[in-house]
Each structure stands twice: as structure tokens, then as C-alpha cells.
Amino acid sequence: MQIINEPDQALAQAVQGIQWAHPELTWVPETYGCYDQRFKDDQVPLIAGGGSGHAPAHWGYVGRGMLTAAVMGPIFTPPTAAQIVKVAQAVTKKKRVFFIVKNFPADVAAFGQAQATLQAAGWEVGMALVADDISVDNASLKKRRRGVAGTVLVHKILGAAALNGATIPMLTTLAKQVTAAVKTIGVAASGALLPGQAQASFTLQPGDIYYGIGIHGEPGYRKEPFQSSERLAQELISKLKLNFNWQPNDHYAVLVNSLGGTPPLELMVFNHDVHELLQLNQLQLDFHKAGTFLTSNGMHGLSLTMLQLADPDWLTALNLPVQTPAWPN
Amino acid sequence: MQIINEPDQALAQAVQGIQWAHPELTWVPETYGCYDQRFKDDQVPLIAGGGSGHAPAHWGYVGRGMLTAAVMGPIFTPPTAAQIVKVAQAVTKKKRVFFIVKNFPADVAAFGQAQATLQAAGWEVGMALVADDISVDNASLKKRRRGVAGTVLVHKILGAAALNGATIPMLTTLAKQVTAAVKTIGVAASGALLPGQAQASFTLQPGDIYYGIGIHGEPGYRKEPFQSSERLAQELISKLKLNFNWQPNDHYAVLVNSLGGTPPLELMVFNHDVHELLQLNQLQLDFHKAGTFLTSNGMHGLSLTMLQLADPDWLTALNLPVQTPAWPN
């Protein structure tokens, strides 16, 4: 059961619910986009976006020091280029904007088209493409490189840089460094929910879990019977270790994320397991958050994001207090 | 499935998980209690507590301007009086403390015994008893008056007062006023989870919802087939209206709370419905939050709390920014 009304009204009603709960966000007509009403147009505005159904991403990260605006589309479907352009125009009169985009074909197409439209109108437009998912496709053995929860750390680091006056070329360089250093992998015990559909995006045998799923319920790379939280942590960390090839005393930030249907108790048990295993790897864990950051509409599951802290400024940026609905200072 | 390890280790491991994620909390040995490590012993310390399984309550509200400390017991079981005393002694050298307690017999007994122990040692001890649940027992037709999500608003208002120098008699008077003005009622589509138990605290027919449940999965007052989020909002608001007997232009704070297993999209749809219906009642909704504040370990459900704002200082207190893991400024 989903606690909604008419399924085709769910998103519009949820957006109104967000408006009541967060009057500090101003919504742009004819879009599911919102911006920080305190924004003074004195820095490069950062805009992130994508489908709805990932709350608190991305509207929950709008606020001084993080995103200037977020623009969502329908559930699991990105906004149109026209909607992205409308939000950019509502935010700034200075014809400059920087987009943070998750690496899904439809998202890249929409933001790319918005970029082209704005550039044709004389705007300077930068873009970060986040492709942190290290899940591997079973058939091609290629990494899927979808954009998932690591995107939130990209918001945070670029947000601090933009607040400190970074130009679009500076943000572009920084985005390349950060997106190359951030990797995520997830696991789920249930699929994502779609309003009006009784079936989740995938179904598992009772007691099975699925490694490497995507945030819209895309398939993972292996199913197996659930054994323990620690076993999940071992699997995800072994994949991250292979990808990072880390050495003792390397410095990392860690983000443990609920995919939306995981109770806080389970999240914190898993967080414990992750931390114990990473300590056995003798890593320096300079930054560590666990919470509900980027979800798959009710999916019972978790993702683990790690960011190699190549630059001490990144840690400063992660720790900078911000005022947003969802980032925990 | 619950994503944990050995069930009898779940709580201890979750507490370690919280420690990694929130190094600003200092934990008291031999307890599941923690305090704000920045506390300077320059105000009356506020301590709330109760069973675990309600995260982010109560540890998530520890921080300057809200709680000084929180002391949890096992899942859905309060801490012992000895543990409460230990936490109070760890927090302050000034022999003064104020407890915020949810109205369950075991909680009241444990905190009452801790109060007596400390008073015998020369402490000044105040206590607020929160009994906001307006759910009615079917047999006796008495209000159950359990302490539920309204407790978080009591933390917030008393937290601001304590920060501003309120004495224990002042906090006692304020607590009486605020607890008399706050009322909550909940609804669920699933029971609460207990580590190691396959069955939730209650089971419903598929598609049924249960009005008036408690935060440990205690029974409610009526089951019926789920129709819509709006129908849930109508039922809960009708009960609150009967209890408050409100008039147009009365001023209220509203807290819409996920019981732990409700996706953000559903929470915000319900929040929309609540707000529309309250506006039809012509109330002045001066404060409005929706989120995950006090949970029933994974319960798919919602609660609605309203606080009649009898004093403009209460609204100022609710809006005061604080630094805690879970309160959204």
C-alpha cells in the first residue's frame, strides 16, 4: 500500500507538501523546480536535478553553501530542458549557471539541451556529470557508472566553492577532480515504488538481497540470500576497495545512505559494520555521515559512498555548516 | 527481513554506528546515554529518554538549545533509574537536572526513581510528563495519553527556555502549559519491528490501516481498508478538532511525522492533505514541519501532532536554530 491519493496527483501534492514544510524554498511556475529565496545572485548559482522519487534529493539540499536551486521532473524522469532553463532564468540575472547532473542518458540529454539553449542566449554554463556507481553489468562486464548518492557530496563540495567565489572554469576543474574520486555501490531487499503500481520495480525471493541495484530500481549484479548486515558491508567494501585500490592511511569521506525504506536502527547497525571493516583497512575516515540522503521511493536498502580526500579543502567544504532542509550539519 | 547481525547485538551495534556518524555526542559508559560534548554546565541540563527503536528520538535532539542529554534503554524498554542517574551525574556538577519523560508506566517509574535517588543526594530535579496521544481505548473509552511525537516539540520549547536561563520552577510551569497544549494521533499500515522477530508488533489484513496505534505497536481504536491519504488526514484531524475544540484564527504548530517506514513522497502527500484540511478550518498555522522525528522501528505509518500556540514565545522557541543531529532548522 502507498499512502497517497490519486496516483497521478501524488507528485503535485507532494510538492505542495514540501512547500508547506519548507517555506524557505520558492517554486518556479510550470516546473517542479525550487530555489533558495535568500539567494542574492552574488555567486555562480548551482542547480542540480533529475527525477522525483529521490527525496530529500535534490530539493533538500537547496540553501546557502550548497545548491542554489533544484529542478525535478516526474517520478524517476528528469525535467525537460525548457523547465531547467526556466529555473536558471528565475535564479539569476547574470547569465551564468553551473549544473550538477547524474549520469543517466535522459538526464544528460535534458541538461545538455538546456546548456545549449542558454549558451545560444549568451550564458556561460558549466556542468558536472556524476557517475559514481561502480556496479557492473553482468552481460557486458562494464561499469554502469550511473549517478547515485555520491552526488550529494558533489553538491556539498561545489557548494562551498561557489559560495567562496569560484568561477565556472574553477568549478569545472574541481568537479572533474571530485567526480573522479567518488564511488558508490548499493544493495536492496526490495524494489522502488511507483505511485499507482502494486508491484515494485523488481521483486526478490523472500529473504533475498540484490547487490548493485540502481536508484530507479534498475537491476544489480547478483542476488543472494540475506545473511547479515556485516556480509553486505563486506561485499560493498570489497567492490570499493578493488575500484579505489586504497593504501593504509589514505584519507576518505564516507556516506552511508538509506534508500528510503530502511529504519534508522538498521542503518546504524550497517554503519557500524562499515566503519569496523574500513578501520581494519587502516583508512583515515575524516568525514562520516549516515542518514537518508538520496532515495529510491521506499526501497529497503542501503548505499555506501566513499570519496578519496585528495585535497584538504574538500574536507573543509564537507564540514562547512549550511542551511538546507536535509543536510545534517 | 531486517538488515542487522545477531539480533541481541543490534542495539549495541546501532549505538556504535551512531557514534561514528555523530562524534559530537559523548556516550556514558554502562548506559545507552549520550550528551552534548559542548555543554558548559551553564544552564539547567535537559535530559529526555525512553526505549530505543524510536530514532532519531531521542539522541538526535541532543545539542545546544535543545536536549543536553538523552538516555535510551533496550528496544521499546526504558533505561533503568541507575542509568538515568549515571547520565545526569556525567552531565553536570551542579546537582540540578530536568527530565522530559513520555507517559508510559515503565518510563514514569524509572525516571521517578532516578528523581528520588538524586533528590536524596541533594539534587534539584524537575520533570515534564508528555501525554500527547489522544487515541482512545475501545473498552474503557478512556484516552490512552501515551507520550508520542509531541514530545519533540516539548524538547524544542523547553530547550530554548533552558538555554535562556530558565530555572527548574520556571521549566516546570512552562512544561505544564506546553504538555497541556500538545496533542498527537497516529495511523499505521504495518506494525513495529523487533530485532530477531519475524512478525511485526501487530499484523493487519493486506490493504488495512489502523488508527490510533502507539509507538511501540500498541493497538489502535479502529481498523479499516485504506482509501486515500486524504481520508487518513480527515480522520486524524477530526479527532484533534474534537479534543482542541478550536476556533477560526487560533494559532497552531503542526508536526507531521513518519513512523519510520514511510517514504518521503508519501509523507509529503499526507502533509499536503493535512495542510489543506487545516486551512479549511481557518486556523493560523504559524509553524509547520514534516519529517522523521520519532519512529516505531520501521512502522509504515504517520502521526499528526498539533500544538496550540498559547504564547508567542513558544513560536520563537520553535524557530530558534539549534545544532543537533536530527532537528531540521
TrEMBL record, chains A, B:
Cleaved signal peptide residues: none
SUPFAM superfamilies: DAK1/DegV-like
Pfam family, one: Dak1
Domain annotation DhaK: ranges: 6-327
Name of the protein in its database record: DhaKLM operon coactivator DhaQ
Source organism of the structure: Lactiplantibacillus daowaiensis
